[in-house]
Write a structure and sequence with these properties.
Structural class: alpha/beta
Radius of gyration: 23 Å
Bound molecules: nicotinamide-adenine-dinucleotide
Largest sheet: 7 strands, mixed
Number of helices: 14
Strand content: 15-25%
Strand order of the largest sheet: 13-14-15-12-11-17-18
Number of strands: 20
Mean pLDDT: 97
């Protein structure tokens, strides 16, 4: 910890690399990462940053663990038991993990405790339970042959994740990768390393063999890039921004042509038709969706498409909810929206607010909170723009903050045209009482998930991911297993 760091009360963050089941120093060419609490603007600890050599050592440890067979060839029932024990330990340490996440990136503590940590536990348990229940294939052949199609782990998985749901995103990669016997090297985001390091420590405590799960905190263009370019990483799984995703495709092409699974950003449309079953609920969810997690959500319904007949009333209802939102100290149980993750991200969002003022009408918000309690933190008022057209920059670019653009549409065809007129294709919301319209519009939307008369719903049993520039992979559900396994055909002549 540097002299200037102000420790967070009651937290004992792990701040070194986690390699081969143990803490490791980073080689000293990379300056450590200062961890700034976005609620106070103060550095609360520093974390070692992995360099290229450190990443190489972590990949080496993962490879040796894989080759040893202690996990990759373990009885699937053993993998299940270890992962269930790990989930129990995460649950037992939920309060500490929740406070780490909130201190790292400003998520309200109620959401860290009630959403983030339970999501990791559920994910680990879901894939633990799948570990010993998978079946391979015995395709039909001629009478004198036997063909076996078996699913095998790919080997060493490189996982690079963002900071907005740091443990949920890590869990979505680790669950299916570990359940099928792979070894993993995880590169957490620069802001959220301490929660990832603790997650790995708990996995080892639960009995995961050394080297199977390694964590290399570090800078994206250094540690992340080294992982992406490593010739001994068999597959790369990534959640984050489009530009980084594209750089990973280059890194893979320039190295060993490893498959790259991308879960990228979005500019999700939320279509509210005049015949929505309950416009109050639709307004609740429109506001909740964009202001939850301070708008730092890949699926945030940042384009609210409203049928022109109800535009004024519905916009007023959303503005009223934006103003009622409780913004403040993320450690306060009553807080609904915490700070933006960093000063840099806050500046980016404020720049978009300035752009929005020139393109549309600011209906509410738009200012940094400057009360004495908030002045040093990175807080922004929930912000709503009306009269937005779909060619505006605030309608086309992912802002990743609590900023909503309201766009009017005339009829169903107009709504679908506007919704699909975006480079992204992650998710969409759709509010209507007309069953046929629900199916028609859902089919026409070029996205990975459509929520009808709800938003942001879904359990582990359904796949999640995008189309177009929102990515190619699917997290969650048994479909995620195919990212981390290869099929082998064994043909036997009888
Ligand atoms: P980011 O791309 O800046 O960073 C994501 C991760 O990539 C971090 O760990 C970072 O260190 C690493 N990274 C950065 N540059 C790299 C490089 N050159 N080589 C290798 N790794 C590198 O994204 P972010 O700001 O952390 O996250 C926000 C983005 O993530 C948004 O676009 C959001 O929509 C997206 N996201 C998508 C999903 C999804 O499931 N589709 C979920 C959450 C977030």
């Amino acid at each position: 910890m540097t002299d200037t760091a102000t420790p967070a009360p009651d937290l004992d963050p792990r701040t070194r690399l986690f390699v081969d089941g143990d803490w490791a120093d980073a080689d000293d060419t990379e300056p450590a990462l200062a961890q700034v609490d976005p609620a106070t603007g103060r550095t609360w600890t520093t974390v070692a940053a992995a360099g290229i050599g450190d990443v190489d050592r972590a990949v080496g440890a993962a490879r040796r663990a894989f080759a040893s067979g202690r996990w990759s060839r373990a009885d699937p029932a053993t993998r299940r038991a270890v992962m269930l024990a790990w989930a129990d330990l995460v649950e037992a340490n939920a309060d500490e993990l929740a406070r780490l996440v909130t201190t790292e990136m400003g998520k309200p503590i109620a959401h860290s405790r009630g959403i983030e940590i339970p999501a990791v536990c559920k994910t680990i348990r879901y894939y633990a339970e799948l570990a010993d229940k998978l079946v391979d294939e015995l395709p039909i052949t001629g009478p004198d042959e036997l063909a076996l199609v078996t699913r095998e782990p790919v080997g060493v998985v490189g996982a690079i994740v963002p900071w907005n749901f740091p443990l949920t995103m890590a869990g979505w990669k680790l669950g299916p990768a570990l359940a099928t016997g792979n070894s993993v090297v995880l590169k957490p985001a620069e802001y959220t390393s301490t929660s990832a390091l603790r997650l790995a420590e708990l996995a080892t405590e639960a009995g995961l063999p050394d080297g199977v799960f390694n964590v290399v905190p570090g800078r994206g263009p250094v540690a992340g890039d080294a992982l992406a370019r490593h010739d001994d990483v068999d597959v790369l799984t990534f959640t984050g921004s489009g530009p980084t995703g594209r750089s990973l495709l280059h890194a893979a092409a320039d190295s060993n042509a490893k498959p790259v699974w991308l879960e990228l950003g979005g500019k999700s449309p939320n279509l509210v038709f005049a015949d929505a079953p309950d416009l109050e609920v639709a307004a609740d969810m429109a506001a909740w969706g964009i202001f939850f997690n301070a708008g730092e959500m890949c699926t945030a319904p940042s384009r609210l498409l409203v049928q022109r007949d109800i535009l004024d009333d519905f916009s007023a209802a959303v503005v009223q909810r934006a103003r009622a939102r409780v913004v403040g100290d993320p450690m306060d149980d009553a807080t609904e929206t915490g700070p933006i993750v960093s000063e840099r991200q806050l500046r980016t969002v404020l720049d978009y607010v300035d752009v929005g003022r020139s393109e549309a009408e600011l209906l509410t918000g738009g200012a940094r909170l400057d009360t004495p309690d908030h002045a040093d933190g990175f807080f922004l008022e929930p912000t709503v723009f009306g009269g937005v057209t779909n060619d505006a920059r605030i309608a086309r670019e992912e802002i990743f903050g609590p900023v909503l653009s309201i766009i009017a549409f005339d009829d169903e065809a107009d709504a679908v045209r506007i919704a699909n007129d975006t480079p992204y294709g992650l998710a969409a919301g759709l509010w209507t009482s007309d069953l046929s319209r629900a199916h028609r519009v859902s089919r026409a939307l070029e996205v990975g998930t459509v929520w009808v008369n709800c938003y942001e719903e879904g359990g582990l049993s359904v796949p999640f991911g995008g189309r177009k520039q929102s990515g190619n992979g699917r997290d969650k559900s048994p479909h995620a297993l195919s990212k981390f396994t290869g099929l082998k055909t064994t043909w036997i002549s009888l």
